[in-house]
Amino acid sequence: MRGVQPSASGAGMRTPGNKLKSYGTVGHRRIMTPLPKVKQKNMSQPYDRVFNFSAGPCTLPVSVLESARDGLLNYKESGMSVMEMSHRSKAYEKIHSEAESDLRSLLNIPSDYKVLFLQGGASLQFTMLAMSFLQGGSADYVITGAWGKKALEAALLEGSAVKIFDAKDTNYNRIPKFADLNFSPDARYVHFTSNETIQGVEFKADPKTAAPLFCDMSSDILSRPVEISNYSLIYAGAQKNMGPAGLAVVIIKESLIATAPEKLHAMLDYRVHAENGSLYNTPPCWSIYICGLVYKNLLANGGVAAAQKICEKRSGLLYDAIDQSGGFFKGHAQVDCRSTMNVTFTLPSEDLTAKFLKEAQCLNLDGLKGHRSVGGCRASIYNAFPVEGCEVLASFMKEFASRNG
User: Which DSSP symbol is given to 400?
Assistant: First the structure.
């Protein structure tokens, strides 16, 4: 179908009968697929891109991808790509330092915190933090979903840890109030996950604890302002709201680093990475570069306060579609625990779910299948996800419910 152009809706093209069709690919061959009749707002998705609701890696701003493309072969007349550049070069040193500086500006990170760019994603942090700070004691873990559970499992391989809250009995559809929790008086630290991507539950405020507070913010970092001083350690895999997979961003209080044991394996030692400015070994330069572009894009568009408003608008469109469906769609999370990043919901039957997903795919609504532990559907709508995609999905949900309810 060479030469066919997308309509202004970005979902496909208009045929002589004004019948909306969508095109996809099989191998290298274009195909045409009839779409359900859904009223859509006029919009444009550049480069024939779909609306990517995948839980990760995330949608990135098109302008960031364009910048990366434009410098791919010869970054700023350096004669090479960032992927080829020495991490000791002046050109990369500028990329690295600006990424840290911009992240500090976005989150208002105090000067007594270190910002580290490390390999291994958030999952390696599960082990690294326990190895560094349990030190023969015990820690408290708040379990609100699959990722908190994995963090606890890693800690238990290093020593003792206590589940002071576990929402397993309701399939992780809720979060606790920290004021209601019974903390261990001798806890070395308290750990929680701010947003659970699989179950779609999220903490909306920054708690305070007597023990050092550690948080996995992988899937909602930069989606709202954060009171950094409430935490001793924040970590986040980059692939939800910041950039490509494989990179972990760690924000850690300098006084906490000083308590870590000596002579850990160098790659698992926060002190080593802090002393070397995240350059102890060759860092994931390209991932850090892309994160830096995302940070600049976010700063140019109003920072995290502006991002928060857009996040609430996106998720509000989908939660309204759920709540106004007369029970056809059922949200997994309790209403006051709902995530702005991952909207999870089920349909009346598996057959209807399969039909919904198939028709959604025809509308270029991609990656909506829910995790097997929850079932149904999951719309992951991280910072760079277009609001228009949520408008199309919400419209489709209403139309689908009216036809099948």
Answer: H
Sole residue written with tokens 């990369």: 92
Confidence check: pLDDT of 162 > 60: yes
The residue from 102, 216, 220, 269 that is catalytic is: 216
| Residue 169 is a catalytic residue | no
- Which domains can be identified in the chain, with CATH numbers? 13-53+303-404 (3.90.1150.10), 66-300 (3.40.640.10)
Count Cβ atoms below 10 Å from residue 154 Cβ, excluding itself: 19
Marked catalytic residue, from 149, 240, 253, 398: 240
Annotated active-site residue in 102, 114, 140, 147: 147
Helix (H) or strand (E) holding 293: helix 285-300
Rounded to two decimals, what is the model's pTM? 0.90
The secondary structure element, H or E, covering residue 316 is helix 303-323
Express each pLDDT in 394-403 by its tens digit: 999 999 999 9
Is 216 an annotated catalytic residue? yes
DSSP state of 182: -
Q: Which pair of structure tokens corresponds to residue 283?
A: 């860092």
Q: Find residue 119's DSSP bridge partners.
A: 247
